[in-house]
């Protein structure tokens, strides 16, 4: 594993500590350079003693609890992590244009393909909002790991369009120094038409053709590889095609490089390229999960997990804090959500018709 221990706010001993650094979270890092491989112990500061599982009350609390979960995972030498935040969540990192709907737009939607419109005519979830949310989450993680030094952190986006946007927005900011790279470096895709031009109809491709496309030489750089000396690789919202490249990277770099998937939505991947790929991604520890449960089986319910705690199924009423309705060791299946929802007391079920998106948006004010 990594060989240098980080410490934020305090110097903390670790079973595999070699040296320590100090960092104030979310401030420009005065990271010391290190020629050795990095090992991370108390990364995000403070004594993170496990307490009773509690759902985050807002975005700030969610980020804080997420840091604590990642810290605990690093202390336990986990180097394959999966982090999932609500779809389209507004972390408030990037500067936003002032608008009358700013308060309500803090979270566009928690549903996947469901009704993402907001009450009162609020604009629904868009690709731009999704990209912004994923980029903000990546930035937060880059800031967390700054004590390693920017040359040891790689933020990996799906394509050059997304990577270029991050480079532009993060340029000159010492708090987010890192390698910003893209798996697809050809820059030929139109991002679903968002960049203009006509969309070409694509033929369905099998695994073999996808792998060949991923490995083919574009005439200059060849197949994607992590920058030299990368200690932490943050893959931002990878899709099925990107998972093929990530599988290869994981096999090449070994367990000594920390690989973190941000909003990969692995629970929604129905088919992997191979059995080996399935085993690999099933081995990624879900150190943080906060998202919608099956809305068909348990309307208005959320699932949450913060490593090393258990999975929580909760209902967020229109008024009041989220209420836990079930806890178990593994992620809830649709049937388990339905069973837990059915056992709720009638008085606990919302009497009014409210949209899940608005429900959670109020939670994330």
User: Roughly what percent helix?
Assistant: 25-40%
Largest sheet: 9 strands, mixed
Task: Extract low-pLDDT stretches.
Answer: 1-39, 41-51, 97-122, 188-200, 215-220, 348-354
Measure the end-to-end span. 39 Å
Can you give the mean pLDDT? 75
Number of strands: 9
CA radius of gyration is 21 Å
Structural class category: alpha/beta
Tally of DSSP helical segments: 8
Label the overall shape.
Answer: globular
Strand percentage, roughly? Answer: 5-15%
Task: State the order of secondary-structure elements, H for helix, E for strand.
Answer: HEHEHEHEHEHEEEEHH
List strands and helices in order, with pairings:
Layout: H1 59-75, E1 80-84, H2 127-144, E2 153-159, H3 160-170, E3 179-184, H4 207-215, E4 232-236, H5 240-253, E5 258-262, H6 275-282, E6 285-292, E7 301-306, E8 311-315, E9 323-328, H7 334-342, H8 356-363
Parallel strand pairs: 1-5, 1-6, 2-3, 2-4, 4-5
Antiparallel strand pairs: 6-7, 7-8, 8-9
Helix pairs in contact: 4-5
Could you please describe the fold and organization of this structure?
With 365 residues, the protein is of the alpha/beta class. α4 crosses α5. β7 and β8 form a beta hairpin. Mean pLDDT is 75; it is low at 1-39, 41-51, 97-122, 188-200, 215-220 and 348-354. The protein has helices at 59-75, 127-144, 160-170, 207-215, 240-253, 275-282, 334-342, 356-363; strands at residues 80-84, 153-159, 179-184, 232-236, 258-262, 285-292, 301-306, 311-315, 323-328. It is globular. It is built from eight helices and nine strands.
């Amino acid at each position: 594993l990594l060989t240098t221990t980080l410490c934020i706010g305090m110097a903390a001993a670790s079973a595999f500590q070699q040296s320590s650094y100090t960092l104030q979270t979310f401030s420009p890092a005065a990271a010391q350079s290190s020629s050795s491989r990095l090992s991370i112990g108390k990364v995000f500061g403070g004594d993170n003693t496990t307490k009773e599982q509690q759902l985050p009350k807002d975005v700030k609390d969610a980020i804080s609890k997420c840091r604590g979960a990642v810290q605990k995972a690093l202390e336990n030498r986990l180097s394959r992590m999966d982090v999932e935040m609500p779809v389209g969540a507004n972390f408030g990192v990037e500067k936003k244009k002032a608008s009358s709907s700013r308060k309500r737009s803090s979270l566009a939607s928690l549903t996947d393909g469901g009704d993402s419109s907001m009450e009162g005519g609020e604009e629904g979830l868009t690709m731009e909002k999704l990209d912004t949310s994923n980029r903000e989450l990546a930035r937060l993680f880059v800031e967390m790991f700054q004590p390693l030094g920017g040359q040891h952190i790689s933020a990996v986006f799906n394509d050059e369009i997304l990577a270029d946007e991050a480079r532009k927005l993060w340029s000159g900011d010492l708090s987010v120094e890192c390698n910003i790279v893209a798996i697809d470096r050809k820059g030929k895709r139109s991002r679903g038409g968002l960049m203009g031009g006509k969309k070409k109809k694509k033929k369905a491709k099998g695994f073999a053709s996808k792998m060949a496309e991923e490995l083919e030489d574009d005439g200059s750089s060849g197949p994607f590889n992590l920058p030299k000396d990368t200690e932490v690789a943050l893959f931002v919202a990878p899709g099925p095609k990107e998972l093929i490249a990530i599988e290869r990277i994981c096999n090449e770099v070994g367990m000594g490089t920390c690989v973190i998937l941000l909003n990969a939505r692995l629970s929604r991947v129905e088919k992997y390229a191979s059995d080996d790929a399935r085993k690999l991604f099933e081995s990624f520890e879900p150190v943080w999960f906060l998202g919608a449960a099956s809305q068909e089986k348990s309307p208005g319910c959320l699932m949450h997990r913060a490593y090393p705690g258990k999975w929580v199924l909760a209902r967020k009423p229109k008024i009041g804090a989220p209420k836990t309705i079930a806890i178990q060791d593994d992620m809830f299946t649709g049937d388990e959500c339905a069973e837990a929802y059915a056992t709720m007391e009638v008085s606990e079920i919302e009497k009014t018709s409210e949209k899940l998106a608005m429900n959670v948006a109020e939670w994330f004010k």
